[in-house]
Design a protein that fits this description.
The protein contains ten helices and eight strands. With 315 residues, it is an alpha/beta fold. The longest helix has 34 residues. The structure holds uridine-5'-diphosphate and magnesium ion. This is Glycosyltransferase involved in cell wall bisynthesis.
C-alpha cells in the first residue's frame, strides 16, 4: 500500500524541520512506501525555501507551491489532486495532529472504512470557546443536510475511492468539513487529546472563524432563504392585522395623533429585518457569482522535481 500525506503549510518556516524529523520517524512504521506532499499556500516567510531544502535532502518529501495564499481548503485540494497514494492522509503542519495516530487510522481504513477521522477533545481550550463551539454545532446540525461534528476537523485518512469522490466535487466554495460528510462512505472515528501548536501561531482569527461559521450554514442548504419567506410571511400577516385594528380604531374613536413609538418600532424593526435578509440573499448571489466564473481553485507556482509545472491542474 502506498501512503500519501498531504500537509497544507502557510507561514510555517519554524515548524518544517521538526515536522520532517517526526514524520521520518513515524511514517516508515505506517507504510514502507510513502510520500509526504507539502503544499505551500503562498507563505510570506521562509517556508518555501525550507520546503526546497527538505525535498532535495529527502526525496520522500515532495512539495507544491501555490502562486499566492488561496486558503487552507484550496491548499488541501491541491495536495489531494497531486497525491499518488492508495491511501491519503491529511494533516496540519504544526503537529497539532499527532502523526502517531496515523498507524491506527490506516489500520482502521484497512478494515473496510473509506474515511477515518480523528476527533479531538477540547481540553485546554478557553471555556467560552468550548461553549460557543458546542452551541454552534448544536444549531448548525438543525439546519444543514449533512451531520457535522464538533472536534472533527481535517485530520483524516481517506481511501483512493473517497479522494476520487472529493475531487469530483468541483464547487468553488469549499466547506471541506461539509464535503467530507457529504460524500458519505463508511467513516470511523478515532479520539485524541487536544495538542498545542509546536511552533508559530494560529492563522485562524476570530473573524475568520466567524466567516467559517457562516460558510457552514450557507454552504449546505438554502434554509436561510426559507427563513426569509417564513419570517416575511409572519410580518405581513401581523401588519395586516394591525392595519385592520388601526382602521377600525380610528373609525370608531377618531384619529389620535400619538403613535410615534409604534411607528419607530415598525420602521426600525422592518428595516433591520430587510437588511438582514438582503444580506442572506446577497450571500447566495455572491456564491453563484463565484461559481459561474469557473476559475481554478488554486494556481501552481512551483513543484519539486518538475522543471516547469502546469500553472493550473485539473482536479
Ligand atoms: N493553513 C493554510 N492556509 C491558510 C491558513 C492555514 O494552508 O490560509 C494551514 C496551516 O499552515 C496549518 C493548517 O492550515 O498547517 C491549520 O492552520 P492553523 O494551525 O493556523 O489553524 P488552527 O490549528 O489554529 O485551527
Ligand atoms: Mg494549528
Amino acid at each position: 500500500m502506498r501512503l500519501s500525506v498531504v500537509i497544507p503549510c502557510f507561514n510555517e518556516e519554524h515548524g518544517i524541520d521538526r515536522l520532517h524529523v517526526v514524520l521520518a520517524e513515524v511514517l516508515p512504521g505506517v507504510s514502507e512506501d510513502f510520500e509526504v506532499l507539502l503544499v505551500d499556500d503562498g507563505s510570506q516567510d521562509g517556508t518555501l525555501p525550507a520546503l526546497r531544502r527538505l525535498a532535495s535532502a529527502d526525496p520522500r518529501f515532495r512539495y507544491l507551491a501555490l502562486s499566492r495564499n488561496f486558503g487552507k481548503e484550496a491548499a488541501m485540494l491541491a495536495g489531494l489532486s497531486q497525491a499518488t497514494g492508495d491511501v491519503v492522509a491529511i494533516m496540519d503542519a504544526d503537529l497539532q495532529h499527532p502523526p502517531q495516530l496515523l498507524a491506527g487510522m490506516v489500520a482502521l481504513l484497512g478494515q473496510g472504512h473509506d474515511q477515518v477521522v480523528a476527533r479531538r477533545t477540547r481540553s485546554g481550550e478557553p471555556t467560552v470557546r468550548r461553549l460557543l463551539s458546542r452551541l454552534y454545532y448544536r444549531m448548525i446540525n438543525k439546519v444543514v443536510d449533512v451531520e457535522l461534528e464538533d472536534g472533527v476537523g481535517d485530520f483524516r485518512v481517506l481511501s483512493r475511492r473517497a479522494v476520487r469522490a472529493l475531487l469530483s466535487l468541483g464547487e468553488y466554495n469549499r466547506f471541506s468539513k461539509g464535503l467530507f460528510a457529504w460524500i458519505g462512505f463508511d467513516t470511523a472515528v478515532v479520539d485524541y487529546d487536544n495538542v498545542q501548536r509546536a511552533a508559530g501561531s494560529s492563522k485562524f482569527t476570530f473573524r475568520k472563524l466567524l466567516n467559517y461559521g457562516i460558510d457552514g450554514v450557507v454552504s449546505f442548504n438554502n434554509k436561510p432563504l426559507r427563513a426569509a419567506i417564513y419570517l416575511g410571511g409572519l410580518v405581513t400577516v401581523l401588519s395586516f392585522a394591525y392595519a385592520a385594528f388601526v382602521l377600525v380604531d380610528s373609525l370608531t374613536r377618531g384619529v389620535d395623533v400619538p403613535g410615534y413609538a409604534t411607528l419607530m418600532v415598525g420602521v426600525a424593526g422592518l428595516g433591520g429585518l430587510q437588511l438582514l435578509f438582503l444580506g442572506v440573499l446577497g450571500e447566495y448571489l455572491g456564491r453563484i457569482y463565484y461559481e459561474t466564473k469557473r476559475r481554478p481553485h488554486f494556481l501552481v507556482k512551483e513543484a519539486s522535481g518538475v522543471a516547469d509545472p502546469p500553472v493550473s491542474v485539473p482536479l
